[in-house]
Amino acid sequence: MLALDTLIYLRGQSQMKLSHSQSSPFVRKVKLAAHALGLADELELVETNTMDANDPIRLVNPLGKIPALEDGRTILYDSRVIVEYLDAKAGGDKLIPASGAARFETLTRAALMDGIMDAAILVVYEGRMRPEDKYVESFVTYQREKIQRGLEVIAASSPKYRNGAMPDAGEIALACVLDYLDFRQQLNWRDHASNLQDWLADFAAAAPGYEATLPPTA
């Protein structure tokens, strides 16, 4: 957990800058977290093209990846770190429990969702970055199997959404996974986790910023 005394609190003094793309599920995690915590109005969204060698993102994050957050002199990257930072900035113990078993259960669910998102993005890159004659179907199948197994584990727990306007970090990540899979149409998650349809409908009805942060054609 980020130590509160190491954070630079600039709330009300300057606007945070979030390097983003509307299609990124990892960026969406951060934006949904900001909405839940009442910090969305403090985010300046900086449109970013990670494939452009001249994009300023490479000066903010040497890996050239999004999301990246600038808060005064504080620069953070990786959605997990940024979500925890925002949670701490809003007082802590909201999206991520401060301690105990609940903390690690939440972080583990969030990590599983991140792994599914990673696999889904790798499928996109395989089709986008490789010439057609170099496409590796076995690699794509391997990634899709990760997605399927992850969804089945979540579905087996029969989750119910009951947290209203304050989802936890794992729930935010799950919503991002399901909507990203619909956006990219890599597989129909309903075939593997049909009981998550009601979960997503309940989340969508209650979570602040849900519609505003959807992928562009979802």
UniProtKB/TrEMBL annotation:
- Keyword Transferase in the entry? The reply is yes
UniProt GO MF annotations: transferase activity
Q: Where in the numbering of this chain does the GST N-terminal domain appear? A: 14-94
Q: Which InterPro entries match?
A: Glutathione-S-Trfase_C_sf (IPR036282), Glutathione_S-Trfase_N (IPR004045), GST_Omega/HSP26 (IPR050983), Thioredoxin-like_sf (IPR036249)
On the tree of life, the source organism's domain of life is Bacteria
Asked if the record carries the keyword Hydrolase, the reply is no
User: Which Pfam families has this protein been placed in?
Assistant: GST_C_2, GST_N_3
Q: Name one GO cellular component term.
A: cytoplasm
List UniProt keywords, sorted A-Z.
Transferase
State the protein's name: Putative glutathione S-transferase
